[in-house]
Amino acid sequence: MEELTRAAERPCAPSPRTGSASAAPPIRVAFVLTPGFSFISFACAIDVLRVANMLSGQTLYSYRVLSTVEGQVHASNGTPAVPEAHFEKGGDCQLIVVFASYGAEQTEDEALFAWLRRASRRGTCIAAAGTAPYILARAGLLEGRLAALHWESINSFMEEFPGLGVCDRVFVEDKNVWTCCGGTSAFDMMVALVARDHGAELSRAVADQLVYPSVRKSGDTQQRSAERLRLVDPELAALIKLMEGTLEDPLTLEQLARRAHLSPRKMQRLFATRIGRTPKQFYVELRLARARSLLSQTRMPVAEIAVSCGFSSASHFSNLYKRVYQISPLAERARAQASAGGSYNLASSMPPKQAYRFTPAADGPTGDHAGS
Fold it and tell me: What is the C-alpha separation between 242 and 271, in angstroms, rounded?
């Protein structure tokens, strides 16, 4: 794969749609990749700034790609990248965006935490995509702030950081800290940052250029199973929402039906016709799915996970877990830890020249077409 260079380092031709922006020093941005980072979030974020530069005809943003490790760093999908430098050599910047995916909850990098704290004290805006809020939490940057996090990680985050605020919004701006839930939400967050810095007209033009017609706002919530099912059957969606909210202290089926203002018979029929399982089976599956998430994303003892997911004992939980997933909870945790460590090297057999390499542009911008 040919070497990639930064389009942000040199100005692009002015766009007749937006005209030239007033001359001003570019905003210096540091993109920080952690092992197993989300490639889609990173791609969304960096392209928003690339296209903002292109459409404005100016270098509004000058960015560097850094890493928390020396040399190559692999995305969660196995794609290797060669950042320009280690984060400690990144220099001064006005915006830091940290990217993480699976494995971020295990991060214990005191040098990174200290670097982020120093930047925050200087007034640098700190942003986190995917599971990177775990890193900000460990750095002490989420005290008194609300953070957005992928819905799959919210329960485990709350277990580990019970005093911090977390939500299932697409992204959140709280003082000088921005967080988004991962995936394409990085696009929404970065477009909002462009709007903050250079106005709504340019941010809309960026979204149009990248064929992203429905930019989400910070108050929008992530689409979860209950919301999707509401389009099919609002009564079923209400039942599932009740279940999702009572995993630690499960309700009886009679209580569920009563709170949803349904008869037990109708509730049974809804699950049978729409999902193909009984309400009890579905409820247990939700609790086991939460347990599975806690096993892979936290260090909670199995007994504590059993209690937090509404099971009467660790032995009952373990037996049921093994019956459903064909693996014991302890073996599941060991497999998740091995996978987290191995996912960073999925492409280790690829030669170095195949990696995405980020270096300062020497002969002008590459990638003239925004959609390429």
Answer: 14
Name every residue whose Cβ is closer than 8 Å to that of residue 11 and which is 6 or more positions away in sequence: 53, 57, 58, 59
In a domain, 352, yes or no: no
Print the domain residue range for 210. Answer: 4-221
Return the closest-CA partner of residue 67 out of 36, 26, 103, 28. 36
User: Does residue 369 lie within any of the structural domains?
Assistant: no
- Beta-carbon contacts of 156 under 8 Å, excluding residues fewer than 6 positions away, are 105, 293, 294, 297, 298
β-pair partners for 27: 61
48, 190 Cβ separation under 8 angstroms? yes
143 and 207 in a single domain? The answer is: yes
**What pLDDT is attached to residue 354?**
46
Write the CATH number for 109. 3.40.50.880
pLDDT one-digit tens code per residue, 136-184: 999 999 999 999 998 888 878 888 898 899 888 899 999 899 999 999 9
pLDDT tens by residue, 221-240: 786 655 555 545 788 888 98
pLDDT at 192: 96
Tally the domains of the chain: 2
